[in-house]
C-alpha cells in the first residue's frame, strides 16, 4: 500500500544536543502516505528524541522538517496536531482520575455554549472506537483500566484529532501478545486508509509483522535502512547492534540443587484490597531458573513484592534457605542474599535525581567500605561505579549523570548491574527486559543464566513468552493469583502455555 | 518503555461531592437548634458570625484549590489577602471624593488586581524560574506583612460597606442574622457555585484538573502548561483579593496584620474540603462556626475562663484538621513540581 508520491513528512539534518550527549546527529527521515516505517535502534540511540522533535516537544538545534513538500513550522505539539500529526508517547500521557472520554477530548473539547458537551464527547469516542475496532468505555476512569486499554485510549486520542501521520513510540512494550496482535491489526487498517505511521519497537517479530520499511539509528545517527520484505530477525538485529546477536540464548540443562525459595499457600492483597495472590505455592532451587508466565495483573507484582518484603502478607508462608521470611523487612530479605530487579524501574528501582554512582550503591551504601562511621567513602563508591558501568556497558557521559536522563534500556542496566554484582542466593527478576534493545536483552539474559550456573536460584517473571522460553528451566503459569501449572520447559509448547495464561487450566 | 499510572486507592476521592464536611454540618445544625431553644439570642448571633467568618475562608480555600489543582502549591494566600486589603483600602480611601459606591468598587477592583499580580509573581517563581513553591509563598507572606505595615498610613478612613438585609429571610428564627451581611459575603457563596460549574463543566476546568495531575498530558495535546498555570494563579489571586476585601468590609479600615492567619486556615479548609468547591464550602462553614462561637463566647464573657482560650479554638481546629483530614485528602499528583518538557 505504499504510495510513492511526495512524502507526507520529510526531515533533513535534524540535530539535538543534550548536556554531554549528541542525541540526534543530522538525521534524515522520509515517510509516505499509507506506509508503516519501523524505527529501530539500541537503547539511547535517539529514537524518542527524533520523534519528539518531529512532534514539537523538543526544538531541534538544527535541521528542517517538510510536510507534504512544504517547510513546516512546528514549535510545539499544538502546531504538530494542527498539521495532522498524532503521537503515542513512550510514557503514558493520560490523566488517571479523569474518564476515557475526558482524556480523549482534552484540549479539543466539543462545546455547547460555555460548557463541554459531555454527551457529544462520549458519542464521538464511541463512534471512533467502533470505527477502528478499539473497544473502550468512554465513561470509565482511566486509572482503573488495565494498561492495554490505556494504550488504546492513547491511540484514540491521536485519532480523535484526525491524525494523518501517527507516531507510536514503543506502544507494545506493556501489551500482552494478544493485545499486541490487535494493535498491529489496527495499524495495518489505518495505513490502508492512508495514514502514515512511524512505529518504534524493540521487538523484531512485530517489525516483521507490521512494517513496510525499516530505518535504524545508532548513537544518534541514521545508520541503516531496509525494506521489511525479505528481512529476518537476525538481519535486523545485526543492522541495529552492528554485530550478530544471539536471539535464543545457549544454556546447558539445569541440574537443580537444594530448595532456596519456598512459597506456601500465600495470600496477598493488592492496592485496592482485593486478594491478588490467593493461595499460591512455588519453589525455586539452586542451579535452576523458574519462569513465571502470565498475563499482567494476575498477581505477579503482588507476589514479588510480598517475597521481597515490600508488601504485607495476609496469609501463608515464605521461606528462604529454610529461614522464615514471611513479612520480613526488605533489608532483612536482601541480607539473606536476595537480589531484586523490580518491574517498575522508575518507581521501585532507581532514584531518578541521584547520580548513577549513588544508584549503584542503593542496596549497600552502608556496608563493604562504602561508609565509615556514617561518612560516605566516595573513593570506594566511585570506583564501584566506574567498574560496573564498564562491565555492564552502560552508555552514559559520566558516572555522576543523574539516572533520569538515561534512556530506558540503560536505566535497566544500572539496576541489573547493582543487583547482580553482589553474590546472591536468590535472584528475582520482574520483566527484566521490558523496553530493552535486543543487544541488551542478550546481555541481561546471559547474566541471569550465569547467576544460575554459579549456583543461585533464579525467579523470572515475564509476560513475554519469548523471554520465558529462552530462559526458564521450569515454567510456572500464574492465573488469578495462583500457579495453575508447572511444566518443565523442555516439554512445554507456546500454545499450551498461552492457553494456560488465558485461564484454560483454571479449575 | 511506557509505565502505567500506578493504581492508587481512590475510594470516593474522585466524586465531585464529598460527604464528610456535610455530615458534620448536619450535626452542627442539630446542635444549633438545641442551643437556640436554650439561648435564642446568642445562638442567632453565633449564626450570623458563622456566615461572616466563613466567607473569607471560602475564597481563600478556593484560591488554594485553583492553584493546587493547576499544580502549584500556594501557601502565599495570607500574603495575597493582606496586600489586597491594603491596596483596596488605599484605593477606596483616596477616591472617597468620587462617592461611596465608586470608591468601594474601585477598592474591590484594586484589591483583586493586587492579589492577582501577586499570584502572577508566584507563577513566575514556580513556572518560569522553577523555584521551590513553598519558598515563593513564604517570600510573599513575609513581604506582605513587612510592606503593608511599613506603607500603612495611620488615620486614613474609607466609606463603610452597605449591609444588605434580605427581607423575609432575615426574619427567620436561628438563621435570620445570616441574611444581614455585606455584599461581598453573599458574593463569596455565589462564587462557590461558579467555581464548581467552571471546574467540572467547562474546558478550562477539564484542563485545570488535568494539568495538576499530569502536565505532560496537557502539553502533548497542544495546550500550554505555563500559560494555564499563570492564568490560574491570577484567577486564584483575584479570589484571595476578594477575601482580603471581606476583611475591609467588616473592619472598614486597614489594620496591620489584619489577616491574622486566615490565609493559612484557608489551606486547612482546602484540604478538609478535599480540593472540591463544595467541600471547601462545608469546611469553611465549620471553621466559620467555631470562629463565630469563640467570638460570641469572648464577647459575652459567659464563662469564667480567660477569653484568650476561646480565641484558640479555630487554630486548634486547624491543627486537628490538618492532622486528620490531611491523611485522607489526595492532592493532585503533580502539585508542587515544576514541569519539564519531554
Ligand atoms: N531530556 C533529556 N535530557 C538529557 N539527556 C537526554 C534527554 N532525553 C534523552 N537524553 C539522552 O539522549 C540519548 C537518546 O535518548 P532517547 O530517549 O532518544 O533514546 P531511545 O532511542 O528512545 O532509547 P530507548 O529505546 O531506551 O527508549 C540518550 O543518551 C539519553 O540519555
Ligand atoms: Mg525511547
Strand-helix topology:
The complex is a heterodimer of chains A (507) and B (342).
Chain A: E1 9-18, E2 21-31, E3 36-41, H1 47-54, E4 62-67, E5 70-71, H2 77-82, E6 85-88, H3 100-105, E7 111-112, E8 115-116, H4 118-131, H5 147-160, E9 165-169, H6 177-192, E10 196-200, H7 204-210, E11 213-218, E12 221-227, H8 233-241, E13 259-269, E14 275-285, E15 288-293, H9 300-307, E16 315-320, E17 323-324, H10 330-335, E18 338-341, H11 345-349, H12 356-359, E19 371-372, E20 375-376, H13 378-391, H14 408-420, E21 426-430, H15 438-454, E22 457-462, H16 465-471, E23 474-479, E24 482-488, H17 494-501
Parallel strand pairs in A: 3-10, 3-11, 6-9, 9-10, 15-22, 15-23, 18-21, 21-22
Antiparallel strand pairs in A: 1-2, 1-4, 4-5, 7-8, 11-12, 13-14, 13-16, 16-17, 19-20, 23-24
Chain B: H1 20-38, H2 40-69, H3 77-94, H4 100-128, H5 133-151, E1 164-165, E2 180-181, H6 183-201, H7 203-213, H8 215-219, H9 225-251, H10 262-272, H11 277-300, H12 307-311, H13 313-328
Antiparallel strand pairs in B: 1-2
Helix pairs in contact in B: 1-2, 1-11, 2-6, 2-9, 2-10, 2-11, 3-4, 3-5, 3-9, 3-10, 4-5, 4-9, 6-7, 6-11, 10-11, 10-13, 11-13
The structure holds adenosine-5'-triphosphate (ATP) and magnesium ion.
